[in-house]
């Protein structure tokens, strides 16, 4: 999402920066979860780490209240585990970040960019490989379980026919495909599968085997954004590294504690390598580590990764300077990032989620479709608007797509963040309103 910082300056898509108001009164996690569930969601579990002490809470709008050990889908937070697996191999001296990934691929399969340069491990781990978000030959038998039947034969076919459009390490482009390939390639070089390798090299050494894993029993029922039950997602080995992990709030907070160096374990150097800035991210102020996204907070740096599947949402934040970590898990596809940030530091404000759920105006396809197009604030930062019947969607550079809802004939609002977009009467430009600031985009 595009965010505005508190200076009311528009940042590039997906950028994160925080100003620091007077510190809010400290409050426990339980009131935060209870208040959020009055607005949206089905059930939440949260944990935070302060001064070496862990606190957990759970709440449910309906059904059983989850606890610290209830099992959720982690989604893309799995990517940080995959990056840690890579960093461990580097620390062990088994490979270098600038080595070519194709060296471990079978049958002489090449993995090159638009200039013929081999893609490197670091390119995959920093989302700068040029690979698309998803392969174009991903045609699942069940659209509600999209990764379940995408196997090595499918991925190999895609890679053989892939025509890269850009050189490596030139553009940040979030890629589930890239991280699935990263995990699979690491497993190939060890002649094993991703789940076995991650369990042996990461989960067991960190003491997480009882809390985090694959297809764990007791997984909660997931729900979509409207609270309707949806099937769980399943991943084969070639996509597992992008989002396959299941686990609890206790397990994820313990993982955060390990990343902060809060207890003795053999992966300290690997974590340090992951958390170091390695490349430019989606905005100049937000470099990327190995999987981790970095956000400035005054004179400090916070580290984050979120996750989302069809039925679950997750967020993990670290503040190494204060030895703090925050985790929030939801068994519905609802945003939880602000809750996890607030758990790390109470001065970071919560979103007004009630404002995001305002009623929408029903528009006809003929009113919506002329608005589709590409609108640019500058050559690096664009907003792509897509119409699907009477529905309108927007996608900022380097970010996922989100839906826009009608407030007036040419004014729309989002439900994933507090922002509104108004299209000019002639359709040649739009204005983005967010956080008290505005930004102008012109149709290309």
From TrEMBL:
Transmembrane segments: none annotated. Keywords: Hydrolase. It comes from the Bacteria. InterPro entries: Beta-lactam-related, Beta-lactam/transpept-like, Diverse_Enzym_Activities. It holds the Pfam family Beta-lactamase. Residues 38-340 form the Beta-lactamase-related domain. The keyword Isomerase does not apply. Gene3D superfamilies: DD-peptidase/beta-lactamase superfamily. One of its GO terms (molecular function) is hydrolase activity. This is Serine hydrolase. It comes from Pelomonas nitida.
